Amino acid sequence: MSVLRHDWQLPEVQALFELPFNDLMFTAQTLHRENFDPNEVQISSLLSIKTGSCSEDCGYCPQSARYDSGLTPEALMPIEQVIAAAKQAKDQGASRFCMGAAWRQPKDRDIDRVVAMVQGVKALGMETCVTLGMLTETQTQRLKEGGLDYYNHNLDTSEDYYSEVITTRTYQDRLDTLARVRDAGINVCCGGIVGMGESAVDRANLLLQLANLPQHPESVPINMLVQVEGTPLMGTEPLDPLVFIRTIAVARIMMPRSRVRLSAGRNEMSDEMQALCFLAGANSIFYGDKLLTTDNPMTHHDLTLFARLGLHSGGSSYAQA
Fold first, then answer.
1. Which of 7, 173, 238, 257 is 20 to 30 A off residue 209, Cα-Cα?
2. Model pTM?
3. Which residues are catalytic?
4. What is the pLDDT confidence band of residue 1, given thresholds at 50, 70 and 90?
């Protein structure tokens, strides 16, 4: 089983990105096979349980109240609707149900309602994940006591580039929330977004930050920027698809036992690009026609692609030592 490192240096990460493509893919796939079934992909489903009117200024996000993206704000969903959506996701093959709310930080009364959703989803036999923004220690403990399995809180990009994308919270704010989640004994889902105009050094530093956390995130979503009209990042030059695939491969090498999730942006990816991402070590996807508010490949398309590639769903979320 692969040795887990938490002492990566930037030149090492840059050297991985600069490997000949075939060598990089071979290294990533070799490590992938040491830790996972190479033909198995974990499937998650994501639901926006509270949409829009967020006070943050994340430059990629149509849910910010600061941008005119044409999004209609929606209050926190009734628990019954959330459970019904989770049951449908399970029937379609998802093993984990993720719930996202557009908050900078939830109020304590909101946490009680989210805990009820978590408990309802767990009763269906599914893993649970929420992304709610920043958390206090008390809120984190409440989620843990309520049975939450995973908390998603992405770093988004490198610390150096972060202020170019977001100014309403700091990089340290994100790290502090991750530390609270980890200290509470909740599994961590943490990754980032590429294609936001960042440099190659920024992409390397993002993965370095993730891999050098005291414990690797159990899930590492790698998102391709989805450009949305009305947001500041609309019009950003698209990222070379091969650079995205390299990012997946380097994440797999640096965090060999984590689930690397092929996340936002799949709607713009060809089947061939996604196949190379799976070869590079991606072994988790979001399933369904929406990722919070942006389009995602339809379920039947994913099933067809899985059949063409000989992939199957299932598996635990983390390769245990």
1. 238
2. 0.88
3. 54, 58, 61, 98, 129, 189, 261
4. low
